[in-house]
Amino acid sequence: MKDEKIYTKLTSSVLKYSTDFFHEKGFVQLMPVILSPVTDPLGPDPGSSVIKTGEVEYLGQKLSLTQSMILHKQIAIRAGIEKLFIISPNIRLEHPKRKKTGRHLFEFSQVDFEIAHAKKEDVYKLMEEFLVGLVKKIKKEHNEELGLLDRKLPDIKTPFSKFTTTKLKERYGKEWEMSASIEEKQPFWTISHKREFYDKEDPEKPGEYLNYDLVYPEGFGEALSGAEREHEFSSIIRKIKGDELDKTRYAPYLELAKKGLIPSAGGGCGVERMVRYLSGAKHIGDVQLFRRVPGESVLV
Ligand code: AMP
Ligand code: MG
Description:
- The two termini are 22 Å apart.
- The chain has helices at residues 3-24, 70-78, 120-141, 143-148, 165-172, 176-183, 233-242, 251-259, 271-279, and strands spanning 28-29, 35-36, 50-52, 55-58, 61-65, 83-91, 93-94, 107-116, 161-164, 188-191, 211-216, 221-228, 264-270.
- The chain is globular, with a radius of gyration of 19 Å.
- The chain has a domain at 3-169 and 260-287: 2-Layer Sandwich (BirA Bifunctional Protein, domain 2).
- The protein is built from nine helices and 13 strands.
- The protein is an alpha+beta fold.
- The chain binds adenosine monophosphate and magnesium ion.
- Magnesium ion binds at residues 47, 213, 222, 225.
- Residues 47, 213, 222, 225 line the site of magnesium ion (MG).
């Protein structure tokens, strides 16, 4: 079997597993949003390097191509959809230097979810169960394909370890995330990252954040980012100002935030990164049938 066929079959299984998993847990599946006046600013986040946001001018409105659905997830929670998920396509026009990371695409999808009134511990539990079940299913149903790819996928055990970003920076320096990913034998959580305004700062400990990343072992890097969310208008405005973002770009979101958002927590797990980890592919572009690698021209 050709590798591209194997990766496509694995992707299909990952999508089916993700959809079934969240439906079985009572989540409501939303349609993805592609164009909107508001999208994730993706910054300031040391993990982001987009050179611009894709935009379309349509009937006098400036609409952005979705970089992530975080703001829409908060709006959907506010509308009373208490547990939701989306297979959400994201366009992130990443810097061409990211061609070589093996982990970056400029078009990819997330399994993106959000839960009203949840705390970070709820997300740890949910996503550990998710990943354990996914690995089990892939090993059971795709044993032959994994063999053809020469991939020895290790079993994973819960609970995953948790490390603060401060501790990892002390131990590994600037490249802490990748160094830890290479070092660790099991997936692990990194907690408290200073990044976008919508991730909640710990009210008890300013300068610490109620957010988390899930990281794959064996050097496959980040799997998921998520957080408990800022829902109070005053905190959102203060942080948007602090990040020097143009608040007029978030006007429709801010109007709703002023009327009141509901506390929530959630995250987004990259589909192609899951397939890369499961299959052991050298480059994430290899798992896409229609390759979207920053710095490579698009063939079809
Ligand atoms: P973020 O909230 O920005 O961390 O994005 C959520 C998840 O989407 C990440 O943890 C990755 O699994 C995936 N992801 C983010 N950016 C990219 C990218 N440029 N290429 C492929 N996957 C990505
Ligand atoms: Mg991230």
